[in-house]
Amino acid sequence: MFLLLAALSAHSAAPESEFLAARDAFRAANLKKLEIHAARLKGHVLEPYVNYWRLRLRLESANPEDIRAYINANNDTPLSDLLRSNWLKSLARKQRWEAFDAEYPRMVREDIELTCYALQSKMRINASTARTEARPLWFVARVLPESCNPLFSELIAAKQLSDDDLWTRIRLTLEIGQVGLAQRIGELLPAGQAPDAKLLNAIAANPGNYLEKKNLDITTRAGRETTMFAVHRLARTSPQQAASHWSQLETRFGADERAYVWGMLGYLGAMRHSASALEWYSRAGDLSDLQLAWKGRAALREANWPEVLAAIAAMTPREADLPSWRYWKARSLKASGKAAEADEILKGLAGEFSFYGQLALEDLGGEVAPPLAKFKPGAEDLRAIGQLPGLQRALVLYRLDLRGDANREWLWAIRHFDDRQLLTAAEFAARSHLYDRAINTADRTVELHDFSLRYLAPFRDVLRTHVNQMDLDEAWVYGLIRQESRFLADVRSHAGASGLMQLMPGTARWVARKLGLKDWRWKEVNDLETNVSLGTWYLRHVYDALDGYPVLASAAYNAGPGRARAWRPAAAMEGAVYAETIPFNETRDYVQKVMANASYYSHVLGQQAQTLKQRLGTIAPRQRDQEPSLADTP
Questions:
Q1: What is the DSSP letter of 315?
Q2: Which stretches within 28-148 are classed as H helix?
C-alpha cells in the first residue's frame, strides 16, 4: 500500500472532487465550466483527461495541429488513440479523405467503423481492390456500423453481391435471432421476393405454432427459408420436436437445403446433449467450425473417438490448433492405438499453463507444479515502475473508483513490457492491493514466471476460517474466487453480482435467510467477512446437492444448480468431458479455469498434491430419485 499512497500524495495539489466536477462538466457538454476546472487542475496527474475532454467538446472546430499536438504529447495514455479515433470519424463524415488517410495508419486499436471508412476512402482510388476487401464484411452476421452501408451499396451496384449472397446473410442473421437485420437485408432483394417480416417475428416467438400448419408455403425461396428458420428456431428449445417436423418436410426441399437444416439440428441438438445429435450430423453437408466443435463434443459424450477425430480433421487449421482440439485429438489418437502420434501432440501441450496443458502433462505421467520463479524485482525496479505516468494515472483512477478508465491506463502502460517489467508491475500492483492487476499482469509473461503473483492468496485468515467451517477444499475455493473477482472485495459485475465471491442479490438473500440473518441488507454484501460467509455456505450447498463433485458445483456456482444438474450425463463420464461439453461458453471456460486454478493453488497453499483428473473425477449418471432437491435453490 505504501507505493499507492506515495503515488497519490505526489499529486494531491488538486482535490479529487475538482477532477470529478470536470468530468461532470464534460458529460454535460458544458465547456465553460470545464475550462474553469481545467485551470485548477494544471499539473495534476490526470490533466491529460481534462485536456482530452476540452478537445472532444470542440472537436468539430478544433485546429488539426492542436489535435496532433495532444496525440503526440500523450502517447503514453490510451486517450491519444481514443482522440485519434474520434478525429478520424469526424474527418470521414466530412469526407476529408486525404487527412483521414494520413492519420488512419497510426491507429492502434481495431475499430470496424473506421475499417469501413478506410475502405470508403480506398474506393476513390482503387475501387476493385476496395470491393474485394469489403466483400467479407457482408457475411458478418451482426449489425454493422452505418459506415459499412456505402460499401455494400457499391458491391450491389457492381453486381458483386448476388441474390444468393443476400439470402446467405439473411440465413446467418436468422441463425443468431437477428430478425430485424434479416428484414432489412430482405429489402435489398428484388420486389416481392423478401420474406414476410410479420411472419418472421411470429416464428421467432412461437416456431412450433407455425410448423403445425398444414399448408406451408415452400414454393418460393422466401417460403422455404422461412420454414427452415422455423425448424432451427424450434430446435433451440426442442431439438427432437424440430427434427420430427423436419423429417416430414425435408422431401419437399433441395439437397443443399436438407443438408443445411440437418447441420443446424445436429449443432443445436448437440448443445442440448441430445442422443440423436450425431445421427442428425450424419445427414448434414459442409459444417462451420462452430458446428464441427459441437459435433466433436457430442462425440465426446458418446465416447465415439473416431467421430471426435473426424470432426477435428474437418475443422479449419485455426480451429483445430486450439488447445482443446489438440488435446482431444491426442486422446482420440490414443484410443485408436496411435499412442506415439498422440504423445507428440501431448508433449507440445504439456508446457502450457492451462486446463488442457495440465491434462496433457498428466497423460504423459508428469505432475503439475508451478515453475520456479527466476526473477524477483528489487526496490529500484519497483521505484522505477511506480514512476511511470501511466501507472500513476491508473492508481489515482482506481482510488476514484473509475475502474474502467484505470484498467485501460494500466493495460496501455504495460502493453510493450518484457517479462521482467511485467513481473515488476505485477509486484507493484500486489503491494498496492490491486490484486486483479497483479494476477492479470503476471499472467502475461512468456518465459519468466512467478506463480506466487499469478495465484495470489490474499485474505487467507478470513477465508480459512469459513472454508474450514464449511469443510471445503481451500485450493478449490481460492481457484473459484480468482475466477470470480480476482480478489476485488468491492467489485460489481455487469449482471449485478457483488463482492469477493460475486453473489447475486437473490442468492445472497436466500442464503441469508438460511443462515437466520434477520437484519440482512444488500449493502452488506461487499463486507469481506459477510461475503465469504454467504459465498462459502452457498458453495457447500451446491456441492452437497450435486453429490460432492467440485466440477458440477463450479458449474452450478456460475450458471445455477439446475443447469449443472441438467448437463449431467446419462452414463458415467470423465469430469473433463463434462466440462468440455457445457453448452455456455462462459461457464465452460469458467469451470475449466477454476479447476486448473485449484491445482496450482494446492501448491501455493502448501497442500498435498492432487491431480487435475482426480479433482475432475468421473461423473456418475444422474439419479433423479436419489439427488437432493434443488427446487428452492436460487
A1: S
A2: 31-40, 47-57, 64-73, 78-93, 97-103, 112-125, 127-138
| Rounded Cα gap, residues 288 and 534, in angstroms | 43
Measure the CA–CA gap between 613 and 595, rounded to whole angstroms: 10
Q: How far apart are CA 599 and CA 578, in angstroms?
A: 18
What stretches of 514-606 adopt beta strand conformation (E)?
573-574
State how far the Cα of 133 lies from the Cα of 295, in Å rounded to an integer: 32
* 480: nearest Cα among 551, 423, 547, 375: 551
Amino acid found at 188? L
Query: What single letter denotes the amino acid at residue 291?
Result: Q
- Tell me how far CA of residue 465 lies from CA of 210, 359, 455, 473, 474, in angstroms: 58, 31, 20, 12, 10
Cβ pair 123, 154 in contact under 8 A: yes
Give the separation between CA 619 and CA 294, rounded to whole angstroms.
20
pLDDT digits (tens, 9 = 90+) for 259-317: 999 999 999 999 999 999 999 999 999 999 999 999 999 999 999 999 999 999 999 99
SS (H, E, C) 142-174: CCCCHHHHHHHHHHHHCCCCCHHHHHHHHHHHH
Rounded distance between C-alpha atoms, residue 56 and residue 394, angstroms: 21
Cell numbers placing 337:
492405438
Q: Return the closest-CA partner of residue 423 out of 376, 483, 463.
A: 376
Strands (E), 286-357: none
Q: How many CB atoms lie within 10 A of CB 87?
A: 23
C-alpha cell at 105: 495508419
Handedness of CA 348, 354, 359, 363 (dihedral sign): positive
Q: What is the DSSP string of 298-313?
A: HHHHTT-HHHHHHHHH
Give the HSE-up count for residue 211: Cα atoms under 13 Å, Cβ half-sphere.
Answer: 26
What sign has the CA pseudo-torsion 513, 517, 521, 527?
A: negative
- pLDDT digits 0-9 by tens, 549-581: 999 999 999 999 999 999 999 999 999 999 999
Query: For residue 255, what pLDDT is reported?
Result: 97
Kindly state the cell numbers that stand for 149. 452501408
Per-residue model confidence as pLDDT tens digits over 466-492:
999 999 999 999 999 999 999 999 888
